[in-house]
């Protein structure tokens, strides 16, 4: 399972894009999106998902 960004809550700060170790997050159109094919949920790399840990708005990066 991958993570997704709740676009209605996203402030478009861009922090998650640079924090993602899988390069799964990018700005497309008017929103940041997570490519589910690239998202590894940071397994075997970190104890928590990096998009979740860096996002300033709670519950914006969530399991898809």
Automatic annotation (TrEMBL):
PROSITE patterns: 4FE4S_FER_1, 4FE4S_FER_2. InterPro entries: 4Fe4S_Fe-S-bd, 4Fe4S_Fe_S_CS. It holds the Pfam family Fer4_7. One of its GO terms (molecular function) is metal ion binding. Keywords: 4Fe-4S, Electron transport, Iron, Iron-sulfur, Metal-binding, Nitrogen fixation, Plasmid, Transport. It comes from Rhizobium grahamii CCGE 502. This is Ferredoxin-like protein in nif region. Residues 1-30 form the 4Fe-4S ferredoxin-type domain. The gene is fdxN. It comes from the Bacteria. The keyword Electron transport applies. Its cofactor is [4Fe-4S] cluster.
């Amino acid at each position: 399972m991958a993570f997704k960004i709740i676009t209605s809550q996203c402030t478009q700060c861009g922090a998650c894009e640079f924090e993602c170790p899988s390069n799964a997050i990018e700005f497309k159109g008017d929103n940041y999106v997570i490519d589910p094919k690239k998202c590894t949920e940071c397994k075997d790399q970190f104890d928590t998902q990096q998009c979740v840990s860096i996002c300033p708005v709670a519950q914006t990066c969530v399991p898809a």
